[in-house]
Every structure is written in C-alpha cells, then in structure tokens.
Amino acid sequence: MKKFGMIVMLFLLLFVTACSSSTSSSAEYPSKNLEIIAPASPGGGWDLTARSVENVLSSQNLVEENMSVVNKPGGGGEVGWKHLESQDAHSLAINSSLVLTNNLLGQSELTYKGFTPIATLATEWQSLAVPPDSKFESASELLEAIKKDPDSIKIGVGPGLGNDDHLSIVQAASEFGIDPSQLNFLVYEGGGDVVTALLGGHVDAVTTSLSEVKDQYLADKLNILAVSSDKPVEEIEDVPTWKDQGIDLVFPHWRGIMGPPDMTEEEIAYWDEKLGEMVETDEWKKVLENNDWEGFYKNSGETKAFMEEQHKLYKGLIEDSGLVK
Amino acid sequence: MDGGSFVDGLMLSLQPINIFWIIIGGFLGTVVGMLPGLGPATAVAVLIPVTFGMDPVSAIILMAAIYYGAMYGGSRSSILLNTPGDGSAIAATFDGYPMAKKGQAGEALAISAVASFIGGLIAVVGFIFLAEPLATFALKFGPAEYFLLMLLTLSAIVALSIGKMVKGFLAMMMGLTLSTVGIDTQTGVYRFTMDIPHLSEGIDFLIVIIGVYAIGEVLYNLLTIDREKKEKKKVGRVWFTKEQWKRSKWPILRSGPIGFLIGVLPGAGGSIASMIGYTTEKQISKKPEEFGKGAPEGLAAPESANNAASVGAMIPLLTMGIPGSGTTAVMLGALVMLGLRPGPLLFEQQPETAWALINSMFIGNIVLIIINIMLVGLLVKILDTPSKVLYPIIVILAFIGTYTLSYSTIDFFLLLIFGFFGLLLKVMDFPLAPLVLALIVGAEMEQNFRKALLSSNGSFDIFFSSGVSIALVILTIVSLLYPLIFKFFKKRSRVNNPDQASKSS
Predict the structure, then answer these.
(1) Which of A201, A227, B207, B406 shows a CA-CA span of 20 to 30 A to B166?
(2) What is the pLDDT of residues B246-272, one digit of tens each?
(3) Across the interface, which of B188, B396, B455 has its CB nearest the CB of A154?
(4) CB distance from A48 to chain B under 8 Å?
C-alpha cells in the first residue's frame, strides 16, 4: 500500500501546483500589484526589456505599486501572450514583431488585434555583415552576386526563419529585384552562433542585429555592408545605411509592451503618462546605451497605427519570402 | 598575455568583497548543482535582479563561481543517489554510483572533488596562455565538424553498452526520436508538437534526465522498498586510498585538457566533454571490464573533464562575446545589462576585468575543493537516511527543478511520463545514458548535418574537407570498432597464453 500512497502523492502534488488562482477587478487603477510578462526565459532580450522597465519604473518611484516580472517562455511568445489574454489590466507583456509574424506564418491563432497596444519602447537596427577578407565591399555587390547565382551565397540567420533578421534581408532583396524565395539561408540557433559561423568563414554573409556585430566590426573582425537605420549609427558612422546605397529600406527591430484585451481608456492613459515619463529618465537612457538600443517611444495611439502599418508590411514580406504558400 | 593587467586583475579578484562573492557563488553553485533540475543557468538567471546593484566585475565573478561550482556539485547526487543534477553529471553515475553501492561513497565524493579541482586548474592555466589561439581554433568548427563531434559522442554508446548492445542502440534511437520534437529550425516546420505551443521548442533534456533518473529511480525503489534488507550501508572512509589515486591520476590529467578543448567550442559543453573523457579512459584502460562497476578512474575522468569544460566555455564568451553554453548565454545577457560587454574589445578596453575573472576562477577552484571536501562527511549521511524520508524529498526537488526550467506546469506531465518510462527501461534492464545522450546531442546533430550539406550544395565531401573533420572521422571509426579490436586482442593474448585460455573457458 505504501507504493500506492506514493503514487497518489505524486498526483496530488501535480494538481495542487497546476491550479492557479483567478483575479478580481476594481475601480481604482492600479489597485494591486502589477506584473510584466516576459514571454521568454530569464536572460533573453524580452526578459531584459521587462526587467529594465520594471527596474526604472520602481527605482524612479514612477509607479508606487509593487511590480514583478513573470517569465512565461515558449512558442516564440505564444505561451506568454496566451497567458496575458486571460489576465486583467494589471498584467502587461513585452512584445516585438513576432506578435504579428507568428500569426502571419500560420503558427498562432493570436493576433495583435486581440491585445491593447500600450507603447513601443525601443529599437535595434539590422545589419548585413561579411568576413573582413570578403570580396564584397558593398551591399549592392553582394546582392548582384546573389542575383546572378543565388546558390553561390550562403546567408547565416538565427534563430528561425520569419524573424526580423530574415525578413529585413528579404525586403532588401525584393527592393533589389531578387526573388527572395531564392535566397540560400543556413539557420543557426541564435545571434551568437551566426556571428561565430561568419568569423569562421562557414557562411558568406550574415543578417543579424547590429549589436551582435558592432564590437566585432570595431575590432576589425568583420565588415558591415549595410545597416537598416534611417541615418548613420553612432560609433560606426562610416557604415552606410541601405538608403545611402540606393535601396529604399528602413527596418527597425522594435520592442514594445501591450496589455490584455479591452483595457479602459483610463488604464491606457495611466501607462501613457508613466511610460512617457520613464523614457525621459537618465536611467532608461542608460539602459538603451548598455544594450545598444535606440529610443523608439510611441504612445498607445501611435503604437496602434504603427502596428497596423507594420502588419501590412510583414504580410507582404512573408508572402514574398516563400515561407507561406 | 600582459603581465601588468594580470597583476591588476589578481589584485582586483583578491579584494575581500570579491573573495566573498567567490565563496557565496561557489557554495550556491555546489548546492544548485546537487539538486536535480536546478542547474547553473537557472541559478544565474534568478540572480540577475540581485546583480543590478553590483559592480560588474563582482557580478561576473559571482556568476562564474556559480557555474563551475555547479560542476562540483552536479556529481554529488549522481554518486549518492544515481540521479544526475545536470547533463554534465550523467557520466558520474556510471562508476560513482557503483562505488557508493560498494560502500565507497566517501572515497567517490573525495576523488571526484579532487578530479574537478585538478581539471579546473589545468583549464585555468590553459586559459591564461591559450585563450587567443584557441578562440581562433574554435572558429574552424563548421557544421560538418560539429556533426562529426556529436557523432563521436554518440559512438560512446558502444562503449557504454557492451554486453547489451541491442538495448543500448534501441535506447539511443528513442533519444534521437525525442530530439526531433519541436520547430525544425532550417524550415520552420512544426514536428510532433501536437498543437501544444509548449512543445514547439522541443522537449527539454533536463526534464527527461530528472524523469528517467530521479523519478524513475524512486519508482524503481518503491517496487522493492518492502523487501529492503535492514543492513546498514557502510559509508567507509572519507578520503581515497593510495591505490585509487594511482589509478585516477593519469585519467584526471588526460581528461582535463580534453574537457577544456571541448568546452571552448561554442555549443559543445560539459555533457559532451564528460562523455568523451569517460569513453577515452575506458578505451585505453587495461581493465575496461571494471568500468561501470565502480572503477575510480571512470569517475575521475568525467569529473575532471566537465569542470575544465566550464572554464573553457568562458573563452568564447570573453574573447568574442559568444556564449558557448546555456549558462554563459544567461551571463552575457546579465553583463550587458550592467554595461560590461564581453567581446573582442574587452581585453583591450577593460583588461583588468578579464584578468580579474580568470584569477577569480583560480581562487574559486581552491575555495570549492575546500567546501566540497568538508561536505563529504555530511553528504555521506544521505545514505543513512531512511528511504521513506529520502524519496519524497527527491520527488519534491524533482518537481521544483522541473518548474524552474520554463515556469510551466505542462512540464510536470512530461516529468511523470518520463518517470514511468524510466521505470520501464530500468525493469527491462535498458541502459539510460544512451537515451539521454542522444536526446542532448540529437537536435544539434541533425541541424548541423543538414547545414553542412546545404552549404556544400549536397556534396558529402564536406565531411572530409578539413584536418579536423578527418581526425574526427577516424576517432569515430576507432571508437565504434573498439569492442571488435578489444576482442581481437583478447583472443591474441589467449593464443599466446594457452594455459590461461583453457583456465578461463
């Protein structure tokens, strides 16, 4: 019988932990502890964004309620955002373009319309990099070679197709008159692996966030052919933008924050005020600087319009890329 | 290497506050390493908010101490309970647990601590003198080389399953099958996820380790608990014998450099290092039949290798800003938050930070061996704990550890499924290591195989195109044929000594 008892205990343990408590609503906002959902494991970009927001808002006494960061990793944000859907207005979640692309790629039922846009916070820029001894000295030389023989150029990307690293180069290729579905990608686990592959000469070019390659560029370990910003980036002013090279492309890799569906106007206004103040603090500017991010603040109204515009853009890019038939 | 910065770094790491963090980190690492499922990556991640207020140098020293501290701790539960705390501690179960069963738990704990210490020291010295050239060497590893390295690791299964080869290979196939679950990175196609978003990132091998080892072990013992004889297990000495040291000395010295080199390769890490350390020793040993039955060198070798690998993994992080393992990836994120950016510019712009870390690893290993030797006497008492108390604790720890992996209760179901699966395998006498090993390397091995062929436009020549890859192919073939070679030599020696042959037959 002891065996049986142990097995019962195993299951009891399971049920106790599987149950979660529900939440109640109140007139005054915020009326209880606030939580920011990072739809990723601790240590990643989304997690660091969530922790930075929490840290600056609390340490600057902008928000008096207790705030906590909750990690809900899985499914490229899906798990965390699904969780947000069922929460009240005291929970917010970090997002990025994946909130649009997961659905467009047919990987998720959730759409950006199912949430309340709160703000766009920061952006990184995308870069196209080659080894220092590469025969390509400009982005157009590389694209020209791809146009002639797409199989001859292997492009490293990570951690998955359909992300901004991938789609930014898809857009550049289409602007140049190349059918993006012909591009040859090797998909690596993450940004670090992509850079390793480039430094070791295992791929001909990589498309990744600028922060992954900036230090390598400053140390002359690789060459950046183009950045996706609208104007030259600080510290590496000599690197041309896509626009400088005659390709009409500005591609932000933004991060934002959103709330559960149907937040009231007062609740949205609260965050417009608090986050608007937060992005002006020196602490937030320090966060941007440490992470190589650029301020990209848009309030809730602007973010709503921005999301619609981005949705249209991504829809076209994903169709062009050949990922969805 | 630059002498002035070395001394500056040493001074920095010897500051009382940093010594304090080394001790805290080492102790914390030992503890989380011991607990199933709670690994160094989780511990470092949980500490991120704490490091916000810290000096970046102290933060990196603390996080590194947790990392290699966990390598010391990981084998404690492998030896005492046959439940590894992490992938890199699996190899410690092969001979560590049989040693404990023979009443040599104290010796096993002591020898593994000393092996970790020496492996760590070898790696720190290697770091000081070889960081730059090794970082360049690691870059030579392309998809083909990684595929072959993982194939070599899997060939260890042959050495592990002598006597039950068919079951070993079956277990490996199950592991490879499980590794295909999740998004296929090359194409973005979802494989075997059954519309559960949680499965899209695959099945975490740590859940499988905790399930088949910890839960499986508990369930297996439940089947026999009532029949348990009331004999008191002998704990024996808390220090190893001269004979054990003589057998372990060379394996430790050989496995340290092997583990260090593998650790330098981004993505390879402690699991592969300890496994290759173990099989190398088994294959060159004069008494391979004692491996798996409590050979001290079979415990010493992987312990030396995995700790050396954790130091080696710092090289790509510090010199190139590239995380070589799950833990270093979390460390990188945390350090960037603090405004310290590991990468090609670190040694130029903040050499004293880099050297402070390297020196702190030296000090940290000394601190850790003291902590771990002192713990031996305390830990062996676990063996005296009645099963009725011990097993519920293991189960609770297993659940907590699983929850910290992705903060999801779905993992509990997976944990139970794999627990019962592990029980089944144990009852049918399947070896568990091939299953877990195949799951750890399976996904990466497949992706690298396909990346290699994609980059060569389908030509298999790429697997023979560099010196490194040819060496790996030869090592794999030797490793696979090793039982045959072994038999051949045995036969020859029988022919040479007909008396002995007739006696043994």
Answers:
(1) B207
(2) 999 999 999 999 999 999 987 778 889
(3) B455
(4) yes
